[in-house]
Amino acid sequence: MSAARILVIDDDPQIRRAMRTSLTARDYQVTDARTGEEGLEKLRSAAFDLVLLDMNMPGMGGIETCRLIRSGSDVAIIMLTVSNTERDKVGALDAGADDYVTKPFSMPELLARIRATLRRLPQPPGSADLRELASQGVEIDLSSRQIAVRGRTSHLTAKEFDLLAYLLARPNRTISHRELLQAVWGPDYGDELEYLRVFVNRLRKKIEPNPAKPQFLVTDAWAGYRFHLPKHDSALG
After folding, report:
1. pTM for this structure?
2. Which long-range contacts link 34-42 to residues 24+ away (Cβ below 8 Å)?
């Protein structure tokens, strides 16, 4: 397996230098950029597996940069921020980040977050369930991570796909918040409920005919989430 390609976008030269030294020593391929604009240009000219993006930069800030990256790419994004408030965390996730790390952080913590963000779950079998969904106007292509809902096509990010796939493989069963977080993000997660709120909302916008009244991605209050798969009765046509 080839080394993951990481783009570091941060205006602090010391952080960029430390990132490059530490990540290269662990066999990652590292490129850096000083500004959001420079980072976007490098993303247009080369392929990356992960972006480490500083939230607080002069000029184009991290949130705006994240939104622009996400509007045209499903590359994994970890936001680096000095703020630990729920508002800023949710803002980063809403902008399209897959995870965030609060400064100051240790390199082992960042490496663990990188591994968690890059990890992929095996695709679920569930072909019968996918056919059932298709009969209800929702077509899911597991290989390309594309969803088509009544003619409207959306592309899922890796983490969106992993969350949906995990729920899809267990239809009509309530999955606890902790189980979902640990299955999709990794064993070090479990209390980050804002991740699930944001990612489920993102998925609903892509998979639900009416995201305001979800019929597939159901919230079971205080318990978790469930992929509701109503069975089509062939006898009724």
Report:
1. 0.86
2. 34/10, 35/9, 35/11, 35/59, 35/60, 36/9, 36/60, 36/61, 36/62, 36/64, 36/65, 36/68, 38/9, 39/7, 39/9, 39/65, 39/69, 40/65, 40/68, 40/69, 42/7
